[in-house]
Protein: Fumarylacetoacetase
Amino acid sequence: MATSCQNKKQSSSIMVSEHWTPWHQVRNETWMPTYKPDSEFSMANFPLGIVSHSDEPRERVATILGEEVIDLRILTTALDVSTLKRLFPGLGITVARLCATFSESTLNEYAELGRHVHRIVRKGLQDLFRIDTPFPEILRDNSNLQKECIFHQTQVRMLVPMQIGDYTDFYAGYHHAYHVGVMFRGPDNALQPNYTHLPVGYHGRASSIVVSGTPIKRPIGQILVDQEKKQPVTEPTRKLDFEVELGAFITKPNKMGEPVSIEDAQDYIFGYVLLNDWSARDIQSWEYVPLGPFNGKNFASTISPWVVMADALEPFRTTPIENKTEIQKYLRETQKKSVYDIELEVDITTAEGETTTIGRTNSKFLMWSFPQMIAHHTLNGCPLRSGDLLGSGTISGPGGADERGSLLEMSEGGKRNISLNGGDLRTFLKDGDTVTLRGVCGTTEAGKVGFGQCEGRIRGAVKWSSN
Amino acid sequence: MATSCQNKKQSSSIMVSEHWTPWHQVRNETWMPTYKPDSEFSMANFPLGIVSHSDEPRERVATILGEEVIDLRILTTALDVSTLKRLFPGLGITVARLCATFSESTLNEYAELGRHVHRIVRKGLQDLFRIDTPFPEILRDNSNLQKECIFHQTQVRMLVPMQIGDYTDFYAGYHHAYHVGVMFRGPDNALQPNYTHLPVGYHGRASSIVVSGTPIKRPIGQILVDQEKKQPVTEPTRKLDFEVELGAFITKPNKMGEPVSIEDAQDYIFGYVLLNDWSARDIQSWEYVPLGPFNGKNFASTISPWVVMADALEPFRTTPIENKTEIQKYLRETQKKSVYDIELEVDITTAEGETTTIGRTNSKFLMWSFPQMIAHHTLNGCPLRSGDLLGSGTISGPGGADERGSLLEMSEGGKRNISLNGGDLRTFLKDGDTVTLRGVCGTTEAGKVGFGQCEGRIRGAVKWSSN
Structure:
């Protein structure tokens, strides 16, 4: 591949071959000496994030390979135009325009360049780091540049990677919707009549989306402790929960008033992150009729810092949960493998440091794909913008408590205790607990594609006098 | 007032007297020759907006007096520092910092300067234009500067005035909530148990907020036409509606995790606009269970372009609808006149040009004030940001159909026709209809404070094949 690229005319207007597949596998080997091939940030990944580090505290774009973070601003600033054109051939834009996006404090500008550019950049990075790199002089044999642009991951601070205009959370996790429905309405009426006809969703809060590692303060709220009295109290939530979700970032805007077709929807996705949509179940259950969740959700949502490019997940496509309903035309996909086979895990680590993996699920347990969510979201002409975040909704598996994506389900609304290593029990989260989501697909041989960690530790509520 | 200001030491750190009331009335007279004293943009108003005009197409901050738009970028750029300090004494910030905000393409930077600055600027503008201006040399006697910075309102283009991070729509219009509740659940269960305990709200869509004058395309959506069949169709909405609301812009952020007290909440409000939260009732009724409105709302919301400063509404405070429930401490206000007496009207103008005022209501018909909404919204630590928009929810009066703020209520869900001038009938909106909201308070003598128009014309849906 690399050789043929080099043989092409080095014009920035060359388009890559239509037969070139973005998920073409490179061998999972690199010249980078610290690399361990079982890393989730393998040669098959190259996610993007926003970092700052002590050398240059201004935010910039970076990628990660193994445990090494590569500062793309420093890297590309050090290279001349002809070198950049060899590394990233056929962009269709100037390399100056590409490189300018690496100096931004969010990935929005880079995202807007479109998936054609993202493909070429990801392949260029793979070519740069592969064991048989066709460009040894750029970085492999340039130890000065390596020292300038490569940082161990412990040396950098990760930031929220995109400026999030709007955040929409869907409810596409079929088993979650079913389990919760059974709890509230029994098995015969578990799912609402609309559930299999459209991807139900609601608008979340963009301002409270934080990056992994940010502490989460236990929210205060109105709670109906005594269901009979109908008189709420104002207290810290007693039912603080997590939700295991996959999040998708939008890459480019659609014009207001113009729906995105299901065929085009894939091109509107930039990449994916893990998403923990923290929830206060007692606040939510009192407030949510008739307009939906509000204070029970909008105090915080945590995302993993590295955006896994949509192309990196292409080899892991699989079929979603079967929907037997005859769905409307605008939601019908020709791509039947419309979801991803990503193994998801959730840990609780107690204040004492005991960690328990309490849930294992998979991102394939969705009834609606992200392209379907996009087609539905824009059916009415609603404008999406670069950096908008779509959440899948909580993803639970079909099995028992240990396959579920929230404590609400695992504890059956607080009725059943969950045992943790070290002997602790939980129904909902305690102050001092840390919740960590992880998501990985692929093998060591081909190179794992993982998301890193999405974690948050619960802090005690603010001091409060109820009356 | 002006004289005493001039006598003060001209330091930027001077604070205005605590006894100075922001809503101190100036006489409703100006030296501006075109001014008509019955204008809603009177000497008592001075709202702010973002404009562009052919002389200088870049967006900038402006105000309006009568029909004349004053470009604050051009005005303040033409003045030297000592003149600016005389005009705006006691800012507590440098005049350079103030003036920089007038060159921004949104009001966010200006809003973040805080209400102390907003007060001084509004008073400075009143002093500059009053008939007995203490600063005749700055503008009254400077016809060159007048020509440079004053434009007739027909010469400027108005833009969305703020970068809106998050948009929250409440449901505080008591009579609307009650009317709609009666339609769906009968009079005994019209209001949900939580309604009188907390200001119910939900997250809206920020990306589809447009400025008055923007055409609104009829949205396509899933509709359950045949309630028995339980099989939806995908069609242009048949029940397109408006909602008459008041919107409040947030002026400064609170820190994530830190609630805003009800005492402090007023200081978080920058100003107010009219808000038409367009709604597709048939899409909404099929989709909204269990997570609330989505595609039935997020295709468009229209706001009036001029932000009426919170201080300009101070003389029009009145009491909200009485809430007999004992509310939680964090929602109890010492300011009993917590809402505004703004007369609201809604017109429909048909494609043929016939205009009918179909509804008259008042912004005082709220059960929850904006400070209560802010205290509730942030109770759980949810961070607000400068430029966030809060909607009141639809505001209906206690009387008949002609006092209601939506066609849903006026037509009783489509059962009753509304007669228009020219003989047309409506249950919901037709293509070609223009909906115009207006809101005004005050008298010609004291100076009216109005919002201008908030209007949108309905365009036909995109071409669509259902199957």
The domain at 167-459 of chain A is CATH 3.90.850.10 (Fumarylacetoacetate hydrolase; domain 2). The first strand of chain A starts at residue 48 and ends at 53. DSSP finds eleven helices and 26 strands in chain A. Residues 16 and 90 of chain A are 6 Å apart (CA to CA).
